[in-house]
């Protein structure tokens, strides 16, 4: 990446006005440097899992109910014991100042306006304290670091900042081989930092080397490569916050997460950015739901693009979803205003999907039948 290059702030969103989250992709690509677009858009390996996420959701046909007396459904839902405007959270995503100068502050403010949780990444380019000051409901996402003292410090900071849940990502023993980043020798510009880490701890992320992803080099240096269930139990013992385990695909791991004290699991393949060849999340979701049997909440991420996808996830048994890339597209295209528009569109799509499926509320959507087409 050319040093110091960032997208221009507050470019107008697409004309005509966006009608869906997908409509933000083109304007985002137009404003972002090509290597930043590849970083946001790309997956690992040959990107087969990245593509499979979308195909699997498209194959889920929901059987609508009729004559249910539903005109204006209620979209509100409870996640981790709290009420929100819809069963959606903004997924944790690193270095959001890469796509817009306001970064995490803009996206968190948009989540606050939409009344949905914002999940703040360990690798946020704005500190957890500043993100909390937006007034958003913040869940803190933890990457396990080699320095356990830093892990403990991050936990203390998350508690002090008023975070309402802790999300630990468990599917990154190493960073998946993201070929676009390798081809681009992608590095983070010096003015975008991992603001939650001590100064200077992200130096490798800024060092461009031909044939190397600087982010992969950085995470290899600071992330602990061998997280175990004992570590999760240690974490459970250090926080009274709801504990969310993100990155579960095998139902056996979901059961182990429950045994370790998890309040929720996120069925996730990291948006197709870790093991290429892992199953699509919509494919494996019902197995995980069946395995935990309401002993914890199950959320879905990876591939969610519109309100019908939220309905599909609920019909497959999830309590809610995390939405990721489309929110970065909206942030890049229009800053906070773009992100607000995207979440408003998503809410409207979900409300319409509930009405068309004959569901008075999200809980009714979990009783719908689905057919896997194709």
TrEMBL record:
This is Alpha-hydroxy acid oxidase. PANTHER family: 2-HYDROXYACID OXIDASE 1 (PTHR10578:SF107), S -2-HYDROXY-ACID OXIDASE-RELATED (PTHR10578). Belongs to the FMN-dependent alpha-hydroxy acid dehydrogenase family. PROSITE patterns: FMN_HYDROXY_ACID_DH_1 (PS00557), FMN_HYDROXY_ACID_DH_2 (PS51349). Coiled coil: none annotated. Its cofactor is FMN. One of its GO terms (molecular function) is oxidoreductase activity. It holds the Pfam family FMN_dh. It comes from Micromonospora reichwaldensis. Keywords: Flavoprotein, FMN, Oxidoreductase.
């Amino acid at each position: 990446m050319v040093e110091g290059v960032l997208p221009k702030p507050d470019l107008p969103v697409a004309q005509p006005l966006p009608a869906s989250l997908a409509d933000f992709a083109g304007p985002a690509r137009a404003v972002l440097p090509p290597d930043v677009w590849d970083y946001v858009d790309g997956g690992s390996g040959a990107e087969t899992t990245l593509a499979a996420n979308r195909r699997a959701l498209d194959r889920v046909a929901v059987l609508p109910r009729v004559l249910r007396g539903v005109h204006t459904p209620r979209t509100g839902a409870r996640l981790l014991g709290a009420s929100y405007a819809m069963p959606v959270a903004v997924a944790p995503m690193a270095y959001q100042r890469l796509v817009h100068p306001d970064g995490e502050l803009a996206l968190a403010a948009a989540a606050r306006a939409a009344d949905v949780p914002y999940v703040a990444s360990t690798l946020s380019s704005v500190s957890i304290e500043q993100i909390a000051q937006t007034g958003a409901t913040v869940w803190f996402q933890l990457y396990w670091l080699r320095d356990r003292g830093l892990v403990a410090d991050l936990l203390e900071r998350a508690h002090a900042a008023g975070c309402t849940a802790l999300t630990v990502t468990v599917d990154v023993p190493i960073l998946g081989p993201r070929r676009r980043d390798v081809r681009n020798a992608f590095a983070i510009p010096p003015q975008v930092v991992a603001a939650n880490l001590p100064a200077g701890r992200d130096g490798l992320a800024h060092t461009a080397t031909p044939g190397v992803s600087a982010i992969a080099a950085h995470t290899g240096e600071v992330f602990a490569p061998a997280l175990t269930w004992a570590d999760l139990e240690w974490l459970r013992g250090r926080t009274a916050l709801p504990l969310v385990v993100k990155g579960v695909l095998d139902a056996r791991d979901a059961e182990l997460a429950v045994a370790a004290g998890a309040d929720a699991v996120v069925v996730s393949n990291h948006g197709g950015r870790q093991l290429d060849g892992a199953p699509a999340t919509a494919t494996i979701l019902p197995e995980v739901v069946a395995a935990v049997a309401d002993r914890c909440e199950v959320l879905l991420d990876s591939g969610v693009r519109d309100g019908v996808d939220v309905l599909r996830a609920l019909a497959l048994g999830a309590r809610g979803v995390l939405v990721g890339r489309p929110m970065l597209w909206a942030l890049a295209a229009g800053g906070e205003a773009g992100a607000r528009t995207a979440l408003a569109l998503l809410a409207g799509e979900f409300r319409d999907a509930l009405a068309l499926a004959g569901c008075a509320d999200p809980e009714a959507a979990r009783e719908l039948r689905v057919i896997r087409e194709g």
